[in-house]
Structure formats: structure tokens, C-alpha cells
């Protein structure tokens, strides 16, 4: 979808109590691609200290083919570092060495790998982000300014961990051009706040025939337009990525409408799998984003007894939809659900029947495939986690079995 077309579908507006948000500037159809966004920066989610070489391309994060000698011979290495930066192609290597994996980044990542001062894996990941962000200030000052313009407020006084991270970055002999942005603990704190509020996780896929496998984050990315989506516990849109399968721009994320959306409605994403319990959702939103959700679903579930929360328990390791932005208006959902209100205890049950993947240990959200060029809606729904395709006929058959 072209940039101009994206601009026709969505507009940024200020919503009282919610800040900047994206709303529909025209009626939207189920499955319609609402936004395709490219990352400002990407960085690995794998701690480097004492770690094994990555099996992903350092530039595009595709899974590398390392199953035999012939496949391994096609994988390229960084010529300068022992950090084990690998690339899937000469093009990725060339791009990375001039942008995201510059000589300073190469040196800095080696320091993280062998430093004794950053033993905490979480601190390592934060340091990797800061290196990527400060490198962005050198290779693309305008992109760095855009990063600083995203939502996310830092504390007035940097905390001890932030001060330690800033001291570590300072020890890496950063380029002099950093000074143009006022390199300081306060700037480091501001960057960490942007990352916390706006980072999307690019996840490993679910392994076939292994429902008990844990999914991990392959990389984090900051997506400038997608960061404006606010959260809702019953979203009307969801995010797809095709890191290993897309031929070009494979780290782009695509936002598709889950169902029809009226003009003027805020477009909502869920920051985590929708099958999480009320307590887990509220805890994550407060810890990571600093707010309490009072959407229609949360108002219902807040009155449930504690033992009912067990019905919606989920796996905290399933962070495939960690993302920023979103919305909180559920009137549209209720219109679509129709008979969902027959269940007084959980009036939104219809959403889970129709739009939540039934595959064990998945927890993904289903959205229809995009309509045809002529505007004909698709009756095939795709899971944004495992890629499962389900037709509306399959759903009707399942409903018939359940009713019998």
C-alpha cells in the first residue's frame, strides 16, 4: 500500500486522556491493510555475554540456513568483530556495515560481550538499544530526531541503572557527533523511555509439531507510525510481520483490520496476546506503560471473582505482540459481535470464538486476508502468530459441533 493511500485511511488526532491516536478517516473493511511501517532502527533481543553466535542475519533478522556446510558457506561475517555478526547476503552485509553495524557499533558490541560490568541480560539489551540509537544519531540525524519525538516520558532525575548505562556508553569512545544532540544522562533516559513505550518485538515462529516450545523475541524495532496506536484489550486491528517469508522489506510490520470499522473510530491494537487474564493485562500495562485500562472488557472482568481469572490465563512467554500505541473504544466491537451480549458473565465471548487462534499455546489474533482488488472481502482468516489459515466455513462447522 502506498504512503498516500495509508494517509487516506488513518489520521492522527488528540484524544482526551489518551494522547495522540490513530483514527479511521473513512469506513474500513475487515482485512484491509491500514498501515505498513518500516523500522527506524532494529536491534537484537539476544544477550551477547557468553552467548553463542546468532542464527539470524544481523541486518534483516531472517533465520540463517546453517543445516549443512554448503548452506553455512553462504553466510557472511563481519570482517571486523568477534561478536559473531552474521549476514544472509552480500547486500545485507553491505547495508549493515554502512548503517546499523558501523565500526563504532562493532567495537561497542564487542565491549558488551566481554565487559564484566553488564552481567544482567536485561541491561545488556538496553545497552544494545542505546548503541543502536546513538549510532542512528550519526548515520541519520533526522531519524534520530524522529525517534526523540515519539511518545514516552522519562523521569526528571535518571535512576541509578540509567546512570550506569550512560556511564558504560560514555566509556565506549562515542563519536564526537553525539555532542550535537546534547549527549547526557538525561538524553539516555529519554531514549530508554522511547524504547519502552514504542518497541515492537519480532518473534520466533511457533515450531511445527512442538506445541510446548517457547517463543522468544528475535529482535526489537521502533516503528514511527505504528507507535501511535493505543491499546485495547479487544482490539479492532492487529499486527502481522513476515520476517522469514517476505522477499523485500521483510522487517516491515503490517496492520490489518480485524473487522469492519466505522469512520472516526480509534484503531486499537493489543500490546500482548488477548487471552491474557485481567490481572496479567493490568499488571503489564501499569508496569510497562504506566496506565490502567478501563475498556469495556476490563470493566466486565474487573467484577469477576479471582477464580474466574483462571479461565483466561496465558503464558507470559508469549510476548509476540509487544508494541506501542492503541485504542480503547469498544462500541464497534459490540456492533460486530451481535449476539455476544447473551453471555452476561462475558459479553465479548464472540470475539474469542471468531478472532482468537484455537491452536494450543498460540494465543494469536485472527484477521481476514486483505479484500480483493475489486473490494470483495475474504472469508479466510490468518493468525498473526502461527500463520494458521481458517475459513468462515471452518468456523461454522466448529460452531455446529459445539452446539450439538
From TrEMBL:
Q: Pfam families recorded for this chain?
A: SET (PF00856)
| UniProt feature, compositional bias: Acidic residues | 307-321, 328-337
Q: Residues annotated as region Disordered?
A: 306-344
Q: Tell me which PROSITE patterns the record gives.
A: SET
CDD domains listed in its UniProt record: SET_SMYD
Instruction: Name the InterPro entries for this protein.
Output: ASHR2-like (IPR044238), SET_dom (IPR001214), SET_dom_sf (IPR046341)
Protein name stated in the entry: SET domain
- Which part of the chain is the SET domain? 8-272
> Which ranges form a coiled coil?
none
Amino acid at each position: 500500500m502506498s504512503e498516500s493511500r495509508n494517509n487516506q485511511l488513518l489520521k492522527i488526532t488528540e484524544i482526551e486522556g489518551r494522547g495522540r491516536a490513530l483514527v479511521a478517516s473513512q469506513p474500513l473493511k475487515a482485512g484491509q491493510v491500514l498501515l505498513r511501517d518500516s523500522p527506524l532502527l532494529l536491534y537484537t533481543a539476544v544477550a551477547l555475554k557468553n552467548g553463542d553466535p546468532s542464527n539470524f542475519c544481523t541486518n534483516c533478522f531472517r533465520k540463517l540456513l546453517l543445516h549443512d556446510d554448503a548452506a553455512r558457506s553462504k553466510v557472511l561475517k563481519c570482517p571486523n568483530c568477534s561478536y559473531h555478526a552474521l549476514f544472509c547476503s552480500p547486500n545485507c552485509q553491505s547495508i549493515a556495515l554502512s548503517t546499523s553495524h558501523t565500526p563504532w557499533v562493532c567495537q561497542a558490541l564487542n565491549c558488551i560481550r566481554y565487559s564484566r560490568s553488564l552481567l544482567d541480560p536485561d541491561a545488556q539489551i538496553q545497552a544494545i538499544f542505546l548503541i543502536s540509537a546513538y549510532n542512528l544519531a550519526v548515520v541519520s540525524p533526522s531519524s534520530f530526531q524522529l525517534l526523540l519525538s515519539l511518545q514516552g516520558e522519562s523521569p526528571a532525575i535518571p535512576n541509578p541503572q540509567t546512570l550506569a548505562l550512560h556511564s558504560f556508553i560514555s566509556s565506549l569512545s562515542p563519536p564526537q557527533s553525539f555532542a550535537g544532540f546534547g549527549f547526557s544522562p538525561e538524553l539516555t533516559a529519554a531514549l530508554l523511555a522511547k524504547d519502552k513505550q514504542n518497541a515492537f518485538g519480532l518473534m520466533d515462529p511457533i515450531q511445527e509439531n512442538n506445541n510446548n516450545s517457547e517463543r522468544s523475541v528475535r529482535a526489537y524495532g521502533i516503528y514511527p507510525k505504528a507507535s501511535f496506536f493505543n491499546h485495547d484489550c479487544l482490539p479492532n486491528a492487529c499486527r502481522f510481520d513476515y520476517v522469514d517469508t517476505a522477499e523485500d522489506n521483510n522487517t516491515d510490520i503490517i496492520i490489518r483490520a480485524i473487522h469492519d470499522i466505522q469512520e472516526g473510530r480509534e484503531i486499537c491494537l493489543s500490546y500482548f496476546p488477548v487471552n491474557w487474564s485481567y490481572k496479567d493485562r493490568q499488571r503489564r500495562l501499569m508496569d510497562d506503560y504506566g496506565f490502567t485500562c478501563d475498556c469495556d472488557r476490563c470493566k466486565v472482568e474487573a467484577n469477576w471473582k479471582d477464580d474466574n481469572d483462571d479461565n483466561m490465563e496465558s503464558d507470559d512467554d508469549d510476548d509476540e505482540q509487544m508494541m506501542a500505541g492503541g485504542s480503547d473504544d469498544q462500541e464497534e466491537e459490540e456492533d460486530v459481535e451481535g449476539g455476544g451480549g447473551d453471555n452476561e458473565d462475558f459479553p465479548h465471548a464472540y470475539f474469542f470464538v471468531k478472532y482468537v487462534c484455537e491452536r494450543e499455546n498460540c494465543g494469536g489474533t485472527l484477521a481476514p486476508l486483505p479484500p480483493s482488488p475489486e473490494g470483495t472481502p475474504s472469508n479466510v482468516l490468518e493468525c498473526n502468530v502461527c500463520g494458521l489459515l481458517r475459513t468462515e466455513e471452518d468456523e461454522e462447522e466448529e460452531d455446529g459441533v459445539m452446539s450439538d
